[in-house]
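Sequence in, structure out.
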Amino acid sequence: MAKVSAKTETAPVKKSAAKPKAKSTSVNIEKVTEDIILKLKDINIDQQLQADLEWCLGSYRYDQNPSGLISVIGKAHEVLKNAHAKKTKGITAAFIGNIEKVLG
């Protein structure tokens, strides 16, 4: 008798296609910070806070460590929330909501 070689077939390996990234519902911290700075300049309040935000944003862009930026955004949130309560023009509930999303 002749030897019969048995071949075992393996299932072809499927390469997974790159999945498209899901739209993130998170808010970009840099964009929100830039919006806060512009809003503070527009309504002309708290120049020191504006400077702190600009400095922390630059620091965040350098080292990607958000801790200082989050802290200053928290201060800006309080200032802008008070301005919203006083019905200051240009500060909307949606704007405050975006800041709150960043703060978590």
